[in-house]
Design goal:
The protein has about 425 residues and is an alpha/beta fold. It has helices at about 1-10, 95-100, 100-120, 130-140, 190-200, 230-240, 255-260, 275-285, 290-300, 310-335, 355-360, 365-380, and strands at about 20-30, 40-45, 50-55, 65-75, 80-85, 120-125, 150, 205-210, 245-250, 265-270, 285-290, 395-400, 415-420, 420-425. A hairpin with a 2-residue loop joins strand 13 and strand 14 (about 420-425). The longest helix is centred in the last third of the chain and has 24 residues, at about 310-335. It binds zinc ion.
């Protein structure tokens, strides 16, 4: 009776005094901030947030819940800064593009989103699709479907004939209308401004552009520059009006430099980045998102006869091995690096492969983990809320068996996933 009375009083004053906490006992903790791991600590979670980190294994009250991760390595939820949740590339992708409706894409993307979350990626930046990714983000935020916290570019923007021009390689009458700013194809300042505003109107969090050709489009040129510095500046300035950063897909050295000079926030892929480009990256404080997994994946697929059309296969065979070498050079040169994989180019849920390729490129495991936690949160502009295990941050927490600092491959077998205080994998 007395307890019931206490409950009623607490409920009357807002209920916070009786809110249930979760105590997570961690054998090893890599918090995303410190260069050193901690042993035997307890993370206290209340609601969606981390409220305290205590030394040793601590229990709460009987009404609190306990999660035993004493035999695991606990880390902040991983962040992948380059995914495409709407698609997963396969031999039939080009033809599928003519058959699939938005609803087909939506159902499929919900599956990819869940797979990504269960692989330990609690936040992703979606760098472009048809715009279904905006609805997917909203559905996840509303709790309609399960997936990571998503920041999305909506539809990506490029020049006529550029990487994101959906009519490249097709006969003239294959599309109902010539793609324009609304479809993410823009030339000249005026159209570039308009294309950004369309994405803002659609509900994008950021802008994605391409300043060079790409591998998986049907153009013969995969690395030539495709926007002028002036066009990129128009995009960046307009995006800034809405608080949106600009991520830029770029393979060739010239397009990389133009993107940096135009004010892009991050360079994606950066395959043929030269020394001058790396110096510019540092002086302009631009992030590099390497996407090594995509490079490897398309490189491998290019060896399978008939997997790609000949024009794509030729580009894929060169880009794959080059990205990894560029990553190694950029890391040595001191370029800021954030974790991004281009998931969708390879199967969703295998995002942690990137850690392996990063360490093969000479980056120590602790730094690779920081690229996927604090660095990524910094690039995405969410480091006040996510990216580390600290009091006040969102309770985005993952754990694996084994020690990733000794064997980075253990990150590919996820053992525990909590997003915003809710457990999704245990
Ligand atoms: Zn991409």
């Amino acid at each position: 009776m007395k307890r019931l009375l206490t409950i009623l009083i607490a409920a009357a004053i807002g209920g916070s005094a009786l809110a249930q906490k979760t105590y997570i006992q961690c054998g090893r903790l890599i918090d995303g901030v410190s260069d050193k791991e901690r042993k035997s600590v307890t993370i206290v979670v209340e609601g969606k947030k981390i409220v305290e980190i205590k030394d040793g294994y601590v229990n709460g009250k009987s009404s609190d819940s306990l999660i035993d991760l004493k035999y695991k390595t606990v880390m902040p939820g991983f962040i992948d800064c380059h995914v495409h949740l709407e698609m997963q590339f396969s031999k039939t992708s080009f033809a599928d593009g003519f058959r699939e409706k938005d609803a087909d894409i939506a159902f499929q993307s919900a599956v990819y989103a869940k797979r990504t979350l269960l692989a330990g990626f609690t936040t992703v930046r979606d760098l472009g699709g048809s715009g279904v990714n905006i609805s997917l983000r909203n559905a996840i935020n509303r709790g309609v479907t399960v997936g990571p916290n998503i920041l999305t570019a909506g539809r990506a923007i490029s020049a006529t004939g550029g990487h994101m021009d959906p009519s490249v390689g097709l006969r003239d009458d294959a599309m109902r209308k010539t793609p324009g700013p609304e479809e993410g194809v823009a030339d000249g300042r005026e159209e570039c401004v308009k294309a950004v505003r369309y994405q803002f109107k659609a509900g994008a969090n950021l802008i994605k552009i391409a300043s060079t050709g790409g591998v998986l489009d049907l153009s013969t040129e995969g690395s030539g520059a495709e926007f002028t510095v002036d066009e990129i500046k128009a995009i960046v300035e307009t995006a800034k009006d809405y608080g949106m950063p600009v991520a830029c897909h770029a393979h060739g050295a010239e397009g990389i430099k133009r993107a940096i000079l135009g004010g892009a926030t991050s360079i994606e892929h950066g395959t043929f980045m030269d020394d001058e480009g790396m110096t510019l990256m540092k002086s302009h404080n631009v992030w590099y998102v390497p996407t090594l997994t995509a490079g490897r994946s398309v490189g491998d697929s290019s060896k399978v006869p008939g997997y790609f059309t000949p024009v794509v296969a030729a580009k894929a065979a060169v880009v794959g091995p080059t990205i990894q070498k560029t990553f190694a050079r950029a890391y040595k040169a001191g370029v800021k690096i954030a974790f991004g994989t281009d998931a969708g180019v390879y199967p969703h849920g295998m995002n942690a492969l990137e850690f392996r390729f990063m360490t093969e490129g000479g980056m120590p495991p602790m730094e690779a983990i920081k690229c996927a936690t604090m660095n990524a949160a910094d690039l995405l502009g969410i480091k006040e809320e996510r990216g580390s295990i600290e009091a006040g941050k969102m309770a985005d927490i993952v754990a694996v068996a084994g020690d990733p600092l000794q064997d980075i491959k253990v990150l590919s077998t996820m053992g525990f996933v909590m997003k915003e205080g809710k457990v999704y994998l245990r």
